[in-house]
Amino acid sequence: MKAHIKITLKNGVLDPQGKAIEGAIKGLGITGVGDVRQGKYIEVDLSESDPAKAKAIVEQMCKDLLANTVIENYSYEIG
Amino acid sequence: MLRASVIVFPGSNCDRDVQTAIERVTGFAPKMVWHGDASVPSSDVIVLPGGFSYGDYLRCGAMAAHSPIMKDVVTKAKAGTPVIGICNGFQILCESGLLPGALLRNASLHFICRDVFLKVENDQTFFTKCYREGEVVKVPIAHGEGNYFADSETLDRLEGEGRIAFRYSNEAGETTAESCPNGAQRNIAGIVNETGRVLGMMPHPERLYEKALGGTDGRRVFESMLLSTLEAVA
């Protein structure tokens, strides 16, 4: 199984990189662009085949390491 | 006698600066402890130095917070051993949960390396007792991620409990938005834990501890750790 993990900054946390990206997109002459927020995408191969156990493993790695829950949210799909 | 231990992570780059500063200011050479060790020798002070531990992979300080030595650092800190984290060390303290909040990318997105003015907010802690509350000191910063963030409830608690050790200010001691180099909330440059024995600060006191370096305002952090240790023994 493979976990596809997305980590994003919480609402209200300033994202200066997102702002810089937003400026660069607009610099391309592309219109109709609003707020840009950037985050991380992490893939993890899992040997666990039981979906419930895999979920528990991914939950632990997200909570304890991959995301800093003071400033970030995480979500994932396992498949 | 001061038994200090400096933790060396792969990517630490201020470890030898702080080693020299502690030895020159206090007269006692610290032990250098590798991050892969299982335990810190019995110490009066543990130092987490500046640098780019683990190349700042994932988030600044995130990997270091989970390195083998940190389990023992956390255990010892919770049991009362004083710990100071400078720059990357502050980031590691936040990532390991010893201090609240997190350090985000500077609001300007720039790496900033220059002297800044700090207002001393609390002169009663283990690492700040040789300063005077309200005085303004000049200490350099050198970071890309020093933008202190915590939710407003946490910030109110830190303020209410006197746990802000240093704030960025102008030379007159006014903590204005213009004097905040990195966007840190409420101009926070350094905070302590509930007991005042764990300090995290972004500025580098080890870079200004003698006149030859251009200033001595960082010196009293090391004098404070020596005085606090000697007072505890006496």
What does this structure look like?
The complex is a heterodimer of chains A (79) and B (234). Chain A has 79 residues and is of the alpha+beta class. Chain A has a single domain, classed as Phosphoribosylformylglycinamidine synthase subunit PurS (Mth169, Chain: A). Helices cover 35% and strands 28% of the residues of chain A. Chain A contains two helices and three strands. Chain A has helices at residues 16-27, 51-66, and strands at residues 2-9, 39-45, 72-78. Chain A has a three-stranded antiparallel beta sheet, with helices on one face. Chain A is elongated. Chain A starts with a strand and ends with a strand. The model of chain A has no long low-confidence stretch (mean pLDDT 95). In chain B, strands 2-1-3-4-11-10-9-6-7 form a nine-stranded mixed beta sheet, sandwiched between helices. Chain B has a two-stranded antiparallel sheet with strand order 5-8. Chain B has helices at 15-26, 68-78, 88-95, 152-160, 219-233; strands at residues 4-8, 31-34, 45-48, 83-86, 102-104, 112-120, 136-143, 147-149, 164-169, 188-192, 198-201. The relative contact order of chain B is 0.18. By secondary structure, chain B is α/β, with parallel strands linked by helices. Chain B has a single domain (4-233), classed as Rossmann fold. In chain B, 24% of the residues lie in helices and 24% in strands. The interface between A and B is medium-sized, with 11 and 20 residues.
